[in-house]
Structures are given as structure tokens and as C-alpha cells.
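Collaboration report, partner site 2.

Our partner group contributed sequences for two proteins of shared interest, and the home lab folded both. The records are reproduced in the order in which they were received, starting with the first partner submission.
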Amino acid sequence: MAIRIGRLEDSSLIARRLAPCRIVVVASPAYLARQGEPRTPGELTRHDCIRYMYGEGGEVWHFVGPDGPGSVRVSGQLRTNNGDAMRVAAVKGRAIAALPSFIVSEELSSGALVPILRDYGVAEMAVHAVYPGGRNPSAKLRSFIDFLVPRFGENPSWDAWMDTAGGTDATVAAP
């Protein structure tokens, strides 16, 4: 069994959803004080954005907002394939980032990062338990997955910051 995060492509694997994986557009208060806060996705073109370069995309962020779906090509000095590196750079005020809430939960709770573009969002990704198909899973595997489901759930602990921040719709789609 493996834990996979993202949008699962068709495969021979069996998947069971464990939790949502919300992507939050964030910036540090220092960055926002210095550069201003974008109010629409189009304003991101005038900002330094950290581009996540794992797989395809990273330079085009897709949003759904009050006027429907849209996308924006972002740019910036930093490109990486590591969410922790993105988090550190965002906390240090280097740029705006779009990150899974489980990576930035503590920073959102503490105020080191703040969610922006809260009126724009898309369908979230998810955390799944996956295992080979084609045969019945063992009782141990079924029990383990059944154990995980309520411990993650639709409101995982890493999204507790949303209760104090008034929730968020600030998510961005992968391409």
C-alpha cells in the first residue's frame, strides 16, 4: 500500500480517499507589506511567484472565481520541485506560493503566512491509500485503511487553521 497525494490517473491500482488536499495561495505579511496584496489572479503577473516544477505545469495557475474559470501565467525567480523549499521561501518573504495546506498549516495558524485570493478556488486534490488491484486485499490491509480513514477525514487536523481564518476558497488547480 502507498499514500498518494494528487489527482489520480487511471491505473490498475485501487484507491480509497483518505482526506482532501487543499492548495492554498499564500504569502508572508512582510511580502504583502512590501509588494501589496493581489486581489485577482490576473494581478499575480506583477508579483514574484514560486513555481512548482514537478511534472507538467507550474507556470500556469488555474482558478475559478466570481467570473468563472481562468488561468494566469506566473513568473518569479524561484522554481523548485520541493514543497518544503517553497514554504521556507514564502515564509522568508521571497514570493507568493501555492502549496498544499498540510505543508503550510503551522505557518497559517501562527500568521507567518496568510492566505490570499480567497475568493478564487478550484476543486481540490485528495490524499488516497492505493494498493494493487486484481485481487482481494488482505484483512490487514483493509483494517489499516479503515484505521486511517477517520484519522484523516474530510476535515483533517492540518486544516484547523481554517476555523480561525474564516475558512478559505484560496486554492489553485494544477494544470
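Second partner submission, folded after the first:
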Amino acid sequence: MKSVQVKELCLAYDGFQVVKGVDFTVAPGEVLGLIGPNGAGKSTLIRALSGVLPIQSGEVWVDGTDLGTLSDSQRARLIAVVPQAEPLGGAYTVRQAVMMGRTPYMNWMGNPGPRDQAFVKRALEFASLADLAGRRIAELSGGEQQRVLLARALAQDTPILLLDEPTSHLDLQHQINLLSLVRRLAKENHLAVLLAMHDLNGVSLCADRVALLVDGRLVALGAPDEVLTAENIAAAYRAQVEIIAHPRYGTPLVLPLQD
């Protein structure tokens, strides 16, 4: 079981400081929902934690180990990422694309073994892609390709999972299924999950805690009912909302108000 600790993290992109002194921890078995308006720094933060973007200052620790000291292979065995969108190569089949998640574990010849095959089979089933395993990526819809990205991350079998708008392009049923799967995997497999989403109600249902990022700064961090308040949302999004308790789950339900 691994945790992620972010300390005074500052990030720059194209010469602009995008993330400014952010602190938080994601514990094993926890889903931390990362929210904020466009340009708040959510995707930049995900990219930095995945090792794609260099850290300007501050620290990221994975279970007591400085992320910056890890090789690409070591990092890939600890952290899997579901990006917003990523070209997978239209000529690959779904199974081949998901098998890419096993790359950190293969030998120098890149030949998958029985364990790799088993993880890919399980990931395809989790992402409801088993029936599409032989299809070419070019033949898939945007939503199906997004599920391939999820399956690839699950096949990677890491203790830390980063998701950047994973429900984009998904229809309602697959959105529900994905968020339920993420929460179940976090609890059953003790994953530390950081979930960046625009859908405040989806985050409210899925996350144990919520981090609100505005202009690169962490302005609120706590349980969904502590962060998803009308006051916080009005200040961050410049939108008037009403917050009620979800009739079934009791979580905050964000209802926009019309002028």
C-alpha cells in the first residue's frame, strides 16, 4: 500500500506559474477528487505527478520516496495515468493497446507472459471491453477509446492511479460504471486515487475528500460536504448554486440556479 504526499508544489507551464505551493496527501484506499474551474491547474498537477512535467519547486513523495529519484520504469510500476485524451494508434487492437500497460514488467524483448495476459484479461473485463478486444482502435468511438485508456492503466497494476477527466466522451451509464469501478478498486485494492473532474456531482459521489484548486492554489480541502458549498462554488466558479442532500446517498448535490 502506497500513499502520495505533495509538499509546497509549484509548477510552471510555458513560462507561467500554474500551480502555487500546493500541499495534500492521498492515502491508500482513498479517492481524492480534484476540482476547479478551467485553467486552475488540475491537468498540470496530474502531469507533474505522473512524471511528464518537471517540478519547479516543492516535493512529491511516494510512500517516503522522492518521486524525482525514480527511473521511468520504477515510476511506471507505482503510478498509472488515465489522461483526458491520447492517440493510441489506430492500427492497434484493443488488446494490444491495453497490453502496453504491462510494458514496465516485460523483458527486454517485450514478450508478454502468462501474468501479463491475465492482467490484461482482467482489465478488459473491468472496463467492459472484453467483446471489443480484437477490434482496431480506429474503429472505436471516443467513449470506447476512453475506456481503453482506463483498461491500460488498470493492466499496469499500480498502487497509485491518476485520472484526468476520465468520464469525458462517456455516456451516462459508462460514467456511472467507471466512477463505481474506481471507488471499488480504491477500497478493495487499497489504491491511492487522484481524480480530476469538472463534474462536481460525480466527484461528490465518488470521492472521500475533495480538493478545490483555483488559480493554481488549493483553497479548500476536506470531505465533500465541507468543500462543495454554495459559497465555495460561487467564489471559484462565479456561479450561483443550491446545495441539497442527495435523496439516496446523502452526499452534496449541486444544482445550478438560473438568473
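Feedback sent to the partner group on the second submission included the following. The longest helix spans residues 172-189. The chain is about 30% helix and 25% strand.
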